[in-house]
Specification:
By secondary structure, the protein is α/β, with parallel strands linked by helices. It has helices at residues 2-37, 74-82, 86-102, 117-121, 125-136, 156-169, 185-190, 200-205, 213-226, 239-247, 264-272; strands spanning 40-49, 54-66, 70-72, 110-114, 143-147, 172-178, 195-198, 230-234, 252-254, 262-263. Strands 1-2-4-5-6-7-8-9 form an eight-stranded mixed beta barrel. Strand 5, helix 6 (156-169) and strand 6 form a beta-alpha-beta unit. Helix 5 runs parallel beside helix 6 (156-169). The protein is globular and about 50 Å long. 31% of the residues are buried. It binds ligand C2E and magnesium ion (3 copies). One magnesium ion is lined by residues 176-177, 197, 199, 234. The site of one magnesium ion has 4 residues, from loops.
């Protein structure tokens, strides 16, 4: 009986695993296809200076409209790509497209691009960054690479060397999703970050009573300032959150209160129609304004 049930269990799982593996392969094939045929797009979410509501930069976020499944979240397809080499091609596409698009924006406006830890761990990564800078001619200090703490899980020598080369190229480095990983302060001591991005999860709970999130946000902003780094608070959606984080000293905010990510066409229309100022008023308001 034990043997039977064991075999039955095995069969059950093997069917499940095969489905999962097939599913994963299909997703990867579809992503490859999309990348080759223009199906992958970059959208841009503004990063806003709170004191005057000026847009100081945009974060490039990848968007994929699957022909049958509709919109697939990068929270789904990026991790899948990270399990294969495809993340390197996706990452290069994101960086190149974002830099090209940013060339049509005012020169003071920065472009932030996410870099997966797996991409970062690739020894060829700094050369790709250097090549994209050269090909596009964008000023390196307009380009900000967003890394998460998982980059420190990689080979120490490769990581150190990559940081050294990137700094030499003159790009900026931001530590994304701060507070959600190990958040070891030694990373901040040794790595040359220009900015810390406070994770959305703290913002989600910061206005709740008896929650430490507001204090943690305050502490991260203080830490960041003491180290001479900028801080962006991510994921601000509501006015009570906005009021709280600005009161705690947040100089830069990125969130739906200002705008969701928009395609380049919208950004260009916005530029053509005036300036780079947005009032905090909720997710659907960042539309190109007519003057
Ligand atoms: P992330 O880098 O931390 O990006 C911020 C995420 O928060 C984005 O989700 C953004 O749309 C979302 N967000 C911003 N403000 C708000 C808000 O007020 N409310 C809510 N609910 N969400 C907000 P998105 O675009 O779904 O991307 C998810 C993650 O996927 C990113 O997190 C990043 O880790 C990854 N990702 C996206 N594009 C790329 C890419 O081109 N390359 C790599 N390696 N990863 C990417
Ligand atoms: Mg990011
Ligand atoms: Mg983040
Ligand atoms: Mg994230």
């Amino acid at each position: 009986a034990a043997k039977n049930s064991g075999r039955g269990t095995y069969r059950f799982y093997s069917v499940d695993l095969k489905d999962e593996e097939t599913e994963r392969q299909e997703l990867l094939d579809d992503m490859r296809e999309a990348l080759a045929t223009g199906g992958m797009e970059m959208h841009y979410q503004p990063v806003v200076r709170t004191k005057d509501n000026m847009v100081v930069g945009f974060e490039a976020l990848m968007r994929w409209e699957h022909p049958e499944r509709g919109n697939v979240s990068p929270g789904v397809f990026i991790p899948a790509a990270e399990e294969s080499d495809l993340i390197n091609q996706l990452g290069e596409f994101a960086l190149r497209r974002a830099c090209e698009d940013a060339l049509a924006w005012p020169e003071t406006v920065r472009i932030a691009v996410n870099v997966s830890a797996k991409q970062f761990a690739n020894k060829g990564f700094p050369a790709i960054v250097s090549q994209v800078l050269e090909d596009t001619g964008i000023a390196p200090d307009r380009v900000e690479l967003e890394l998460t703490e998982t980059v420190f899980m990689g080979d120490v020598d490769v990581t150190d060397e990559t940081f050294r080369i990137l700094k030499g190229l003159g790009v900026r480095l931001a530590l994304d999703d701060f507070g959600t990983g190990y958040s070891s302060l030694s990373y901040l001591r040794s790595a040359p970050f220009d900015k810390i991005k406070v994770d959305k999860s703290f913002v989600d709970t910061c206005t709740q009573k008896n929650e430490n999130s507001a204090k943690i946000i305050t502490a991260i902003i203080g830490l960041s300032k003491a180290l001479g780094m900028d801080t962006t608070v991510e994921g601000v959606e509501a006015f009570d959150q906005f009021d709280l984080v600005t009161e705690k000293g947040a100089e830069y905010i990125q969130g739906w209160i200002y705008s969701k990510a928009r395609p380049q066409a919208d950004i260009l229309e916005y530029i053509a129609n005036g300036g780079f100022k947005i009032e905090p008023s909720g997710p659907e308001t960042y539309r190109p304004e007519r003057r």
